[in-house]
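Researcher: I need the complex structure. Ligand is alpha-L-arabinofuranose. Inputs:
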Amino acid sequence: AGPCDIYSSGGTPCVAAHSTTRALYSAFSGALYQVKRGSDGATTTISPVSAGGVANAAAQDTFCASTTCLITIIYDQSGRGNHLTQAPPGGFSGPEANGYDNLASAIGAPVTLNGAKAYGVFISPGTGYRNNAVSGTATGDASEGMYAVLDGTHYNGGCCFDYGNAETSSTDTGNGHMEAIYYGDNTVWGTGSGSGPWFMADLENGLFSGASSGQNTADPSLSYRFLTAALKGGQNVWALRGGNSASGSLSTYYNGARPSASGYNPMSKEGAIILGIGGDNSVGAQGTFYEGVMTTGYPSDATENSVQANIVAAKYATTSLTSGPALTVGSSISLRATTSGYTDRYLAHTGATVNTQVVTSASSTTLKQQASWKVRTGLGNSGCFSFESTDTSGSYLRHYNFELQVAASDGTKQFNEDATFCPHTGLNGQGNSILAWGYPTRFIRHYNNVGYAASNGGVHTFDSATSFNDDVSWVVGTSFA
Ligand code: AHR
Ligand code: AHR
Ligand code: AHR
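Model: Output:
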């Protein structure tokens, strides 16, 4: 059985079921998600390898070979058509054209399930999915349940990495107009014990983990690589339950009355579905989503426990974040451009500015050092790499506003993540194309001989699709200095 078969047996069937990694019904063999590739704008759907099985990641890899791919649709497996697509602007606008949010990279969150490769949905700040024209989700004070499997190590304090029930207008229509899973270390409205991150409920104008806003120490800081977060709400009752998706059972972090502040009892749920954003399209958050559902009716603890056992049996595990020619931690390297007409140029820096420079064996020692990088274990993720400046130890290649810089480490989580890059097989067939870990739609690119973290055809000038594959492909060589 799949999670939604279990919810059905419990009398609280799924009304929405989303996953890019696997079928959530044992009989489901339809489309899990759609991807769109950068080379020609073509789309394809990815289905389970067999009914009830894991997504056919190999089909995605073939379709997306030598180009970029975005996740354009996350299909609803429940049959109700509650698909998730690129979120439109609301109270806040997204960074994409016309205020839409960004779409997620199709390769940002590779995992295995029982040994078979699949891809989750890696949400960077600015990325979001939504459905404001839903069928069958809870409205008003009606009961519902939901769960999601998330990456417990991918989070931030921005508002709001959510999955669940939100406003159909994409605007903040008041307290009690949302009921969604939240994950992160935002401290504006509420906190749990420790320094976070926490699983909380986004009930609109507040992230709650107990009967009141503010701190609820029964809600623990979490660090599971794979996190099961289960939220349910009924008439003056709601519960937060969570656990390790890879083993063990769910713990109850809260089970009790609705918040006493005005507007949360009764609730005024609207039934739209969000992923990766707040109810009003707040787009500051990051996180990773693998699978999740929403039900009609208030699921029993026993039903949720069976769903957790099903998730554990799916055996989520990590896999390599890199591909292509291997980099060696501790080595010193150069990165040569491969765009025709620029192949004598290397990734370098002039002060804080990252650029490409023509470098030869006859160049000055200063320039040779500026074009040489020390490979370090990724400051923000040990599965990827950071590049330390050869002439300025303690300074690293990072992106800021998607421009590459060389900057001194300030030791913050933000710096570490901005300074972490994941090499892949070069998109033009040469060397490596190097993803920004926190923005896996974006690669190290030269544009007008300046360095950027660029997406293929995005809104910035430096995102130009012209010559993208060449501009993001670099041959790694021994360093000049
Ligand atoms: O409740 C927290 C956030 O507040 C909601 O997600 C958003 O709609 C509002 O800004
Ligand atoms: O480069 C994109 C973002 O810009 C970085 O993650 C952040 O540090 C800055 O605001
Ligand atoms: O960075 C040099 C060139 O500048 C790139 O190849 C091109 O995309 C841009 O015009």
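Model: Summary of the prediction. The two ends are 59 Å apart (CA to CA).
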